[in-house]
């Protein structure tokens, strides 16, 4: 298998403060990878750097194409869907409008309409609420909407920033089952950032653990899950 | 009673002027989150362009359409050249930019076309409308154009993809980028549309107030007041706000003894402030959601 995303020597800055200190990792095409680490480790920053939402240096290649110098919206057009921390829901718009916005880069109105239906099949709650303002959805429903909105892009790579945040355990399980299905059926490569390490390691093939902007552990998800030292010192379970 | 009805009618007629200007104000506010103090001057300049075209013998409606196209392009150019570089500057820098733009447009218009007042034709004529002495065919036409414009804007924002993208860019720029929307161009498009709507307002107002470089001063103030009264986030509110301000102003002038033309404006504005104290987001405005 080939790499869909390759990252070399990634450094990112908030003003003068350096938040990432030379990350290096890659994602296999079709894989699920998880990025773990404590609060403030630099997980969100890594995802933001991939989409050029923050000043960074280093090499990022998506499907062989360098991303340096491309704007966020152009990177999205290449097929990278980013579900940001906090979901980024357009709260004043309806559920349906949120889904339409997800497909903003596409021109195939037939395909878009079909995909809206497909999302409603994945997430039946959204169908019931299609004309409702997205801000009135529950937290779990909004997270479903955020994932559905990202899928409307027909992405090749999906970046998810703490999708389980604030959700009830049952909802989290559903959500991860859907992510696994999307990865398997639609061949979407997934990079998921999680606090809930146990759950993320269960669906991921590869895992990276970062601490203060550096990768401290990389390997098969199962190996990371089995490594007691890593679990105790970085993952807290 | 008849006096009351008549004054309300006359108020609606002047209100159409404010409503039209308020639409342009809301348009730009949606795009950039600020009021554009130079909006009136931009509208005045567009009206001069229309006047010049008509002087050169271009038929009215062709001049009208050409002026819209030129104003639309002009709005986009102003955004690209002047305000895009200021995108991350503090608000006071923007205000300085607006004031500079105001002064530049005003003096360029004065230099090009001088400060003498000019007649501007109305496409609707100025006969009594349906035999009424209070409202002329021009005023009726103005009300009609404002309502059609409102409907078109509603349709644009509600039913087109680009309208949806503009709303998304205005409400959450970061999320908009993450679905692939070029937020910078949406802002430029907002400037273009606001400029074109301002041009319509200017061309409709000019037959009433006469064309000269300072014609929009007071009207922009009323336009702001109307937009704020209606709620800056709602084109519908802006139009209703415009009509209400027009009606307020007329009724105050008629029914409160001793209020002549000079006092109409302050009293109308005082009433608006009162409304805003009770409903800070305006009559139809949504609660303002903080940007992330
Ligand atoms: N907007 C910002 N301005 C300045 N520093 C920031 C900003 N955002 C994050 N940082 C800093 O960058 C570092 C990495 O933050 P980041 O948000 O990437 O952490 P994270 O791993 O996503 O944490 P969490 O699990 O809490 O979301 C932290 O030290 C943080 O203080
Ligand atoms: Mg984070």
Report the oligomer: heterodimer
The 3D shape of chain A can be described as globular
Count, helices of chain B: 11
| CATH architectural designation of the largest domain in chain A | 3-Layer(aba) Sandwich
Largest sheet of chain A: 6 strands, mixed
Secondary structure category of chain B: mainly alpha
Overview in brief:
The complex is a heterodimer of chains A (237) and B (292). Chain A has 237 residues and is of the alpha/beta class. Helix content of chain A is 39%, strand content 28%.
Give an account of the 3D structure:
- The complex is a heterodimer of chains A (237) and B (292).
- Chain A is an alpha/beta fold and 237 residues long.
- Chain A folds into 2 domains: 1-79 and 157-237, Rossmann fold (3-Layer(aba) Sandwich); 89-154, no CATH class.
- Chain A contains 10 helices and 10 strands.
- Chain A has helices spanning 43-50, 72-77, 95-102, 109-122, 124-128, 139-151, 169-186, 197-203, 221-226, 228-235; strands spanning 3-14, 17-28, 32-36, 55-62, 65-66, 80-83, 157-161, 189-194, 206-211, 214-220.
- Chain A has a 6-stranded mixed beta sheet, with helices on both faces.
- Chain A is globular, with a radius of gyration of 17 Å.
- The mean pLDDT of chain A is 92.
- Chain B is mostly helical and 292 residues long.
- Chain B has one domain.
- Helix content of chain B is 74%, strand content 2%.
- The longest helix of chain B has 31 residues, at 2-32.
- The A-B interface holds A 51, 53, 71-73, 76-77, 81-82, 84, 86, 88-93, 97, 100-102, 104-105, 149, 153 and B 161, 164-165, 167-168, 171-172, 174-183, 286, 289, 292.
- Bound molecules: adenosine-5'-triphosphate and magnesium ion.
- Adenosine-5'-triphosphate (ATP) binds next to strand 2 and helix 1 of chain A.
- The site of magnesium ion (MG) has 4 residues of chain A, from helix 1.
